[in-house]
Amino acid sequence: MNTKTSLNQSGQAGAVATCAIALGGNIGDSYQILEAAIKTLAHTPGIKLQGKSSWYRTKPVGPPQPDYLNGCAILQVEMSPDLLLETLLATEQKFGRVRQQRWGERSLDLDLLLYDDLIIDTPHLQIPHPRMVERAFVLIPLAEIAPAWVEPVSGCLIQDLVKNVDCSDVLLSKSN
User: Fold this and answer.
1) With contact defined as beta carbons under 8 Å apart, do 105 and 64 qualify?
2) Separation CA 170–CA 155 (nearest Å)
3) 102 included as an active-site residue
4) Closest CA to 41 of 18, 64, 12, 73
5) By CB atoms within 10 Å of each CB, which of 76, 99, 134, 166 scores lowest?
6) Catalytic one among 57, 67, 82, 111?
7) Is 106 an active-site residue?
8) Candidate list 57, 82, 109, 169, residue with the active-site label
9) Is the pLDDT of residue 21 over 70?
10) Which InterPro entries match (predicted)?
11) Are strands 47-52 and 55-58 parallel, antiparallel or unpaired?
């Protein structure tokens, strides 16, 4: 995936990047929340929805809690990785996300997985997402919509990375 140049809303040249995000939730009506979050992001200036995966029912990571509904989306963005992260965090808050416990239950979780082929490692942002290659609940929906995307740290295709994880606890819930 390569960054391209286009004109932004003010007519100035800006970078256009293709990004992958993961979505999940296990509090409230997760399906409705995830669908509404996708619509919110798609209507955010500087973001265009390129595609979204099916939704998958998955076992939680962390403390005992309800199962999750997870999926992924591909976005075309005209914003920096930091601004995209801020936008994702603001969207989580809009849908009632409260950060109380690491890997605890939540109404909405949005993770920035990939931003073109960038590798970023700062205290507040890591791209690719540092645990995505270990998580079937991320790789299965991502492989559905971006199988040929090369994860830049490993150099492997997403469709090949999914073969290296246990997929037994990831069940199709709602297909597109």
Assistant:
1) no
2) 24
3) no
4) 73
5) 166
6) 111
7) yes
8) 109
9) yes
10) Hppk (IPR000550), Hppk_sf (IPR035907)
11) unpaired
Q: Distance between CA 26 and CA 46 in Å, rounded?
A: 28
Spatial separation of the C-alpha atoms in residues 16 and 154, rounded to whole Å: 24
Q: Which of 99, 106, 116, 166 is catalytic?
A: 106
| Contact between 25 and 87 (Cβ < 8 Å) | no
The yes-or-no answer on residue 97 being catalytic is: yes
141: which 2 tokens? Answer: 């929906």
| Per-residue pLDDT reduced to its tens digit, 51-94 | 999 999 998 877 788 999 999 999 999 999 999 999 999 999 89
Side chain identity, residue 127? I
As a whole number, the mean pLDDT across the chain is 88
Secondary structure (DSSP) of 99-155: --STT---S-EEEEEEETT--EE-SS-EES-TTGGG-HHHHHHHHHH-TTPEETTTT
